[in-house]
Amino acid sequence: MEIGIAFPKVMPAGDSARIIEWAERADDGPFSSLAMVDRLVYGNHDPLIVFAVAAAVTSRIRLMPTVLLLSLRNAAIVAKQVASIDAVSGGRFSLGVGVGSRADDFAAAGVSMKGRGKRLDEQVATLRRIWSGGPAAEGAGPIGPAPARPGGPELLIGGRSALALERSGRLGDGYVAGAAGAGVSNQSKEVVGYYQAVEAAWKEAGKPGRPRLVVALSCAVGEYAAERTRESMRSYYAFRGEAAARMDLSVPSTPEAILDAIGVFEAIGADELILEPGHADLDQVDRLGDIVASR
Questions:
Q1: Is the N end or the C end of the chain the one with fewer CB atoms within 10 Å?
Q2: Residue 216 sits in which domain range?
Q3: What is the rounded distance in angstroms from the CA atom of residue 219 to the CA atom of residue 226?
Q4: Do 148 and 89 form a contact (C-beta atoms < 8 A)?
Q5: Global pTM?
Q6: With helix as H, strand as E and coil as C, how does 44-97 read?
């Protein structure tokens, strides 16, 4: 099982050097991927902008949003942006996408939440057509640049609803299971159920092999960092109102607990585990890297 690391959901807005150093330290460490989540009405940086920066200062690590809210965006523009990052990075970009569930994000983008699942189906088809050299729409020519990999980067689809899971198996190259924060045991059991639904849709579509499984885990080294991570998660889920304050947020924070969690997700067959610290101290990259290297 590969192990990646995510940027914290919010990086200090006035400290651009920290984004660059986080990416550089992740690239120097034992991590397979550098990931980032997406929101619009929130204090995070735009993932595609951050990954363009990261592509310029890294040479090895995979770059992967988990997930980009494609339903808020124009598919043709995203196709060009992603192909550009993929080309600049030498084919190190993997695109995770999802429909999104926050009404305020859609209101701010001026996009209807209604029909977002069907819209995502169409957007995925548009991405793949453009990356393969076809037109974005009738009467429009091809959109460049060509991605580094023929047909475009790996495309993963996240979500927990039955429709999202079916879509992931039918249209994606794999499934992204976001961090749940409800305890490693409970999260792993949920992921197994989700992945079984994805696999069923994959087989129903007659696709060979198996979908890739990427799982995110909220964690941090040290109790202070763990508490900052819990606060970050509560802030991220604040749209749920009082339910966010009552969330049971489990954050492994010792080397033993993190190694145990890694073992749990490896045992269920995950292809990659993304460690998600919610504390932006650069020391977290090094300390998590030491834990990963000790396996």
A1: C
A2: 2-293
A3: 7
A4: yes
A5: 0.95
A6: CCCHHHHHHHHHHHCCCCEEEECCEEHHHCCHHHHHHHHHHHHHHCCCCECEEE
Instruction: Give me 195's structure tokens.
Output: 């992945």
Q: What is the CATH number of the domain that holds 104?
A: 3.20.20.30
Tell me how many domains the chain contains.
Answer: 1
Pull the structure tokens for residue 191. Answer: 């992921």
Strand 155-158 and strand 68-69: pairing? unpaired
